[in-house]
């Protein structure tokens, strides 16, 4: 009898630890959601007015918000990969029981900070020239004349890539926040955590969280190809991101 009580206590303790780990991860991803929404608010309305890359880069200001890297030992989430789904099938890989998918989401978010810093630096070079020459506004041609076309094209490429990355990861994050709690619930004995722990969840205004995320208007790749003097397919390939490709 004492052995059974001990075994149940240990099983309860193990289940509580699993839920605590899942909740910790969930909070970290909620933090990603908050950061990305805040960043996006700085440019979404203005950039969304045009598909012309020669206009859009000037409507996305430097992003001064710090991106702190998310660190989490995903081996703590191995319990959500059940024997039934752990065969890495196509169906399984598209669910949040796929720990690799969670890792890719976090890694891509961590990469955003690097992209922002690179773009901020490139944009700062242009803004410094404007400040030195006491110029308040200028168009694409004037910008190319002031700092060189190559510098402006670099900012344009970074801008369009960053816009896509942020949209892609935000959609992925919303999907995680919507579905992950159920994955955890399906992977533990809920009776053992009753009166001990609760599985965190996120309430959306819509049943479909992706409806809340309206992508920025797609850039005109024909114009991109023209100003870069490059094939449109190559420009598209270089600009699009992992999540975009996976969805096609």
Structural class: mainly alpha
SSE pattern, N- to C-terminal:
HHHHHHHHHHH
Q: Ends: how far apart?
A: 57 Å
Mean pLDDT: 85
How many H/I helices? Answer: 11
Gross morphology is elongated
Main pleated-sheet profile: none
- Unreliable stretches: none
How many individual β-strands?
0
Cα-based radius of gyration, to the nearest Å: 23 Å
Helicity level:
55-70%
Strand content: under 5%
Q: Could you outline the blueprint of secondary structure elements for this entry?
A:
Layout: H1 2-40, H2 44-47, H3 53-59, H4 90-93, H5 99-132, H6 140-147, H7 149-187, H8 190-193, H9 221-228, H10 232-239, H11 242-247
Textual characterization of the structure:
- The longest helix has 39 residues, at 2-40.
- The chain has 248 residues and is mainly α.
- The radius of gyration is 23 Å and the shape is elongated.
- It has 11 helices and no strands.
- The mean pLDDT is 85.
- 25% of the residues are buried.
Structural features:
248 residues, mainly alpha
Give a summary of the structure in a few sentences:
The protein is mainly α and 248 residues long. It is 65% helix and 0% strand. The protein is built from eleven helices and no strands.
């Amino acid at each position: 009898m004492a052995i059974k009580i001990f075994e149940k206590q240990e099983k309860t303790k193990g289940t509580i630890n699993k839920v605590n780990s899942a909740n910790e991860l969930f909070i970290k991803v909620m933090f990603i959601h908050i950061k990305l929404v805040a960043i996006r608010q700085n440019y979404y309305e203005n950039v969304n007015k045009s598909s012309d890359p020669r206009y859009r880069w000037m409507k996305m200001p430097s992003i001064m918000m710090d991106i702190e890297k998310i660190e989490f030992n995903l081996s703590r989430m191995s319990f959500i990969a059940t024997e039934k789904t752990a065969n890495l099938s196509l169906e399984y890989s598209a669910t949040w029981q796929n720990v690799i998918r969670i890792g890719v989401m976090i890694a891509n978010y961590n990469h955003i900070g690097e992209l922002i810093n690179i773009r901020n630096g490139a944009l700062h070079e242009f803004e410094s020239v404007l400040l030195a020459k006491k110029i308040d506004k200028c168009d694409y041609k004037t910008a190319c004349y002031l700092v060189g076309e190559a510098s402006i094209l670099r900012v344009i490429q970074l801008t369009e890539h960053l816009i896509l990355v942020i949209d892609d990861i935000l959609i992925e994050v919303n999907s995680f926040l919507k579905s992950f709690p159920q994955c955890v619930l399906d992977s533990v004995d809920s009776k053992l955590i009753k009166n001990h722990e609760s599985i965190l969840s996120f309430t959306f205004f819509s049943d479909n969280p992706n409806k809340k995320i309206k992508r920025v208007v797609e850039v005109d790749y024909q114009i991109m190809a023209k100003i870069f003097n490059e094939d449109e397919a190559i420009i598209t390939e270089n600009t699009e991101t992992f999540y975009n490709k996976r969805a096609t």
